[in-house]
Automatic annotation (TrEMBL):
Keywords: Membrane, Transmembrane, Transmembrane helix. The lineage of its organism: Bacteria, Pseudomonadati, Pseudomonadota, Gammaproteobacteria, Oceanospirillales. It is a multi-pass membrane protein. The keyword Nucleus does not apply. It is found in: Membrane. Coiled coil: none annotated. The keyword Membrane applies. InterPro entries: MamF_MmsF. It comes from Halomonas lysinitropha. The chain crosses the membrane at residues 26-53, 73-104. This is DUF4870 domain-containing protein. Signal peptide: none annotated. It comes from the Bacteria.
Length: 127
């Protein structure tokens, strides 16, 4: 019988009672949320952390890093478009929609992270 754990077998890790540390992904989600107050600066730090830690854990945790990276780039696009649209006043509404989108996306990610599973619909542009 082989006592070594395969690196990609998440069930084997759970059966042995060890779960990966989720502190870093939690910090990245919080940095994304704080980015709304800091003008995106903390979100930039968060995406760098996500890029650095991506690929160092089980598949479900790597999906969170991928989700966080996509959240950063999509948010940058949404907030950029909203900034341009403020010139015609509709940007304030799209900015509010982008804030709601970011909050929902981060809360959804934190919820699934707490459940030790990958976020659903990682590739979506919505929530």
């Amino acid at each position: 019988m082989n006592d070594q754990l395969p690196q990609d077998d998440d069930r084997a890790i759970t059966e042995r009672g060890t779960t990966p540390d989720t502190t870093i992904p939690i910090v990245v989600y919080v940095l994304h949320l704080a980015g709304m107050v800091t003008g995106g600066l903390t979100s930039l730090v968060g995406v760098v952390i996500a890029y650095v830690y991506r690929g160092n854990g089980p598949a479900w945790l790597d999906e969170h890093y991928r989700y966080q990276i996509r959240t950063f780039w999509i948010a940058l696009l949404y907030f950029g478009i909203s900034g341009l649209l403020t010139l015609v006043l509709i940007g304030f509404i799209t900015w509010l929609a982008a804030v709601v989108w970011l909050v929902i996306r981060c809360v959804k990610g934190l919820k699934t992270l707490n459940e030790h599973r990958a976020p659903e619909n990682v590739d979506t542009w919505w929530v």
